[in-house]
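User: Fold this one for me? It's Alpha/beta hydrolase.
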Amino acid sequence: MAHTLKYHVARWIRSGLAVGVAALASLAGSSAMAQADHTMTPIAIPAQPKAIELGTGPLPGATAPEAWHSQYGSVFARNVTVATLTPFLPDPSKATGAAVIVAPGGGFRTLSMNNEGWDVAQALADRGVAAFVLKYRLNQTPQDMPAFERSMAEMFSGTARRPPAPGDASVTLAPQIADARAAFALVRSRAKEWKVDSDRIGMVGFSAGAMLTMATTLYGQDAKPAHIANIYGPLAAVEVPAGAPPLFVALAADDPFFANAGYGLIDSWRTAKRPVEFHLYEQGGHGFGMYPKETTSTGWFEAYVRWLSMHGYLKPKA
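Assistant: Here's what I get for Alpha/beta hydrolase.
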């Protein structure tokens, strides 16, 4: 029987296979990453003057405050208790009216804000697509850095890898889905101000963010993304909703987490006769994002942009 997305949500979150992108990047093996600093260094929460609180409230039961750290020359957020959305708007002369909600990954424990958030959003804005980085609420982790590092290391342990009982994504990811729904609602409410077409708002997610993208598509009710991209997320088979949006998928064949479980998601979209494009790169590991690498996986963004163009999102709506 094909694994379902619900099973993978439960397994990924509760078994600890969703290691933060920061830890996973070290598995990718690029020379650029090899030269970067692997140490997790606490940093002050950076100024985010354009970030807009989404109004979904504080994470229930949270006690640890939001904290940030640097690693690999990038920055990561954790213990996010209040969701925000940060706009990256294109030059008005380039604006196409299309928009994308960008969901970084990090195992629902951290968020890779540079590599899978701001850098992606800026690159989209440079192509005329309005982009909005979703800093969604996260599962709590130990407040002090040594304890946090130990908790991340434990994710690699044999104990952590035991698969738990299946869970329901609509319940397991309820806070994050609520944040995504609020992000879509906010962009639509300010569509005129931001020069966005309300019916041309898509979503791209990385790793855990890819899981959230799929969960938002399946369980997000009024979110209704116009197009979606799953970048190195799980590819479990799903029940495809009627009128499902076009789907773009990118994964490396040496991804240590999702490269050996089949391609049920692709088959599901094809069986439902919905548009899907799948790029399986020979190398790239997990968490390649916008990091410069010597593998062909670095080309995923250009392929994604060409796909958006093919679907008409790099031109103003006729």
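One thing worth pointing out: The chain has one domain: 5-310.
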